[in-house]
Design goal:
InterPro entries: Hydgase_assmbl_chp_CS (IPR019812), Hydrogenase_HupF/HypC (IPR001109). This protein has two helices and five strands. The chain has about 90 residues and is an alpha+beta fold. Strand 2 and strand 3 form a beta hairpin. About 20% of the residues are buried.
Length: about 90
Amino acid sequence: MCLGVPAQVVDIHDTARATVSISGVSRMISTDLMMGEELAVGDWVLIHVGFALGKIDEAEATETLKQIKQLGGGTFEDELESFTSSQIE
């Protein structure tokens, strides 16, 4: 399964790359699809296959992470593993 997962921006490298963190796992992602949205450290974004799709607020991020974890069957762990292994260069 490949879900959109909330992650928090921890560093901004340039207009096309940022580092985000999910449950203590950090990696660089592409912000090319953000359509001119301004990003700041601390913002939450929805990540899918290494791309930030858009900003979301902290409440939505928290609720979405909670729901993904409730899916069970290792869904959250699978998504975290996928997130860890698919680094954007």
